[in-house]
UniProtKB/TrEMBL annotation:
<protein>
    <submittedName>
        <fullName>Cob(I)yrinic acid a,c-diamide adenosyltransferase</fullName>
    </submittedName>
</protein>
<dbReference type="Pfam" id="PF02572">
    <property type="entry name" value="CobA_CobO_BtuR"/>
</dbReference>
<dbReference type="InterPro" id="IPR027417">
    <property type="entry name" value="P-loop_NTPase"/>
</dbReference>
<dbReference type="InterPro" id="IPR003724">
    <property type="entry name" value="CblAdoTrfase_CobA"/>
</dbReference>
Length: 175
C-alpha cells in the first residue's frame, strides 16, 4: 500500500471486531503484515485460533480485566489501565521500527473512553504513523476529533440482537 488510511468501526451493534478481523484476513491473504492489537479483551476467541495459523498476522494483547471496570476497586482499575497503556506504548515503539501494513486497534476507543489511553496520543499517532500503515480502531464512542481524522467511518447499530432476549454469546458467532 502506498497510503495507509484510518478506519473507525464504532457503535453499539455486533460486528465491529468481526469487520476488523475480515480486513485483517484480507490483508494477510494478499501478503500484508498485520498486527491485531486487543485492548480490554480476555479469553480465547475464535479469531485468535485462526490468527495463530496465519503467519502474516501478529496478535498483541494487554490482557483483559476479569470484571467490568464499574465493579473494580481503584487498585484494580489502575492495574488494568497500566496494562492497556503498556500495550499502547509497545505498539507505538515497534510500529515505527518495523511498521505493519495493517494495524488493528480493537477496543482502543473503549480504553480511551475509560481514560486508560489519552485521546491526544491517538491523534498524535495518526499524524506520525508510518505513511503506508493502514489503521483500524474499534469501540463504542469516538470523539468528533477522531471522526474528523478518519478516512473510513462505519457506524454499527444494534437493530435486533439475541442478547436482549437473554441469549448469551455463542462460541463461533459472538466469541
Amino acid at each position: 500500500m502506498d497510503t495507509g488510511f484510518i478506519h473507525i468501526y464504532y457503535g453499539n451493534g455486533k460486528g465491529k471486531t468481526t469487520a476488523a478481523v475480515g480486513l485483517a484476513v484480507r490483508c494477510a491473504g494478499r501478503g500484508g503484515q498485520v498486527w491485531f492489537a486487543q485492548f480490554l479483551k480476555a479469553g480465547n476467541t475464535g479469531e485468535l485460533t485462526i490468527f495463530s495459523r496465519i503467519p502474516e498476522i501478529t496478535v498483541w494483547r494487554a490482557g483483559g480485566p476479569s470484571k467490568f471496570t464499574s465493579q473494580m476497586t481503584a487498585a484494580e482499575r489502575l492495574q488494568t489501565a497500566a496494562r492497556q497503556n503498556r500495550l499502547w506504548r509497545r505498539l507505538l515503539h515497534h510500529c515505527h521500527e518495523a511498521p505493519p501494513d495493517l494495524l488493528v486497534l480493537d477496543e482502543l476507543l473503549v480504553a480511551m473512553s475509560l481514560g486508560f489511553i489519552p485521546e491526544k496520543e491517538i491523534i498524535r499517532f495518526f499524524h506520525t504513523k508510518p505513511p503506508q500503515t493502514e489503521i483500524v480502531l474499534t469501540g463504542h464512542t469516538p470523539s468528533r476529533e477522531l471522526l474528523a481524522a478518519a478516512d473510513y467511518i462505519s457506524q454499527i447499530t444494534a437493530v435486533k440482537h439475541p442478547f436482549t432476549r437473554g441469549i448469551p454469546a455463542r462460541i463461533g458467532i459472538e466469541k
